[in-house]
Design a protein that fits this description.
Blueprint lengths: L8 H11 L3 H18 L10 H13 L12 E5 L7 H7 L4 E5 L3 H14 L4 E4 L3 H7 L6 E5 L4 H4 L13 E7 L12 E9 L2 E8 L2
Parallel strand pairs: 1-2, 1-4, 2-3, 4-5
Antiparallel strand pairs: 5-7, 6-7
Length: about 210
Amino acid sequence: MDVYQEKYAKYWDKLKEAENLSEEQINQFKQYASLILEWNEKFNLTAITSLPEMITKHFADALVLRKYMDLKEIKNLMDVGSGAGIPGLPLKILFPHLSVILMEVNKKKLRFLKEALESLSLKNVELCDVDWRTFLRTTEGEIDLFVSRATLDPLELCRMFKPSSAYKKTKLVYWASETWEPDPKISKFVLDTKEYKLGYRKRKLVFLGV
């Protein structure tokens, strides 16, 4: 699919205006979308195969975080269960100063992420191929924020808040559906919930911490 076709211009223009993107940034998003669509023909990288939906349901959805958090104050973040790189790569494109770690254990998706980083010439982005539990058990790094877009179960994500975890004081943002409600075991970790709309679709950002 040619993401530069005139029929898609209104979708790109809307994203560019809404997020105040530079010409370089919108071109990065176009290249990124083209890569996702190309790889989707090889294997199931993402369920969304329509470019307009990708712009709204992937890119705009990832960038909604800027409305509720000052990401200029964040130096580094980890995207847990990154998949096609969302929300980590859209946030990196929007905020180039960020150091980003993309955690993904699927080897095909890791190959995609590696090619995406090379094609987009993104600096200070690392790939992490260990699973979440192993990461929490074996590492101690400086991470300001964890993000996860409805990949791992929130109960699993909240393992990071155990007293023995090196990351127990770090915040986590979870993208959830409109109907999501916290399990009683994790309610104590919910700091805030923000509801928002993507077109007619309602979503939630859940802020977790201790």
